[in-house]
Amino acid sequence: MPKLKTHKGAKSRFHVTGNGRLMRMKCGKSHFRRRKAPRTKRLYDSMVPVSDADAPRLRRLMPYQ
User: Pseudo-torsion of CA 4, 10, 8, 28, nearest 10°?
Assistant: First the structure.
């Protein structure tokens, strides 16, 4: 059976922690930044966990991560 391929778009957008938790960046970071407060822009820099409903689908896209 051939090896499974990693989805490169998912690999660039999601990060797997040491415990196996999938993390993603917050949305809204790169557009209309002038009108946002500095504190709001700082909050966009943090990563948040992927929802439990989306995690199984992402694990199929990244089988070896």
Answer: 180
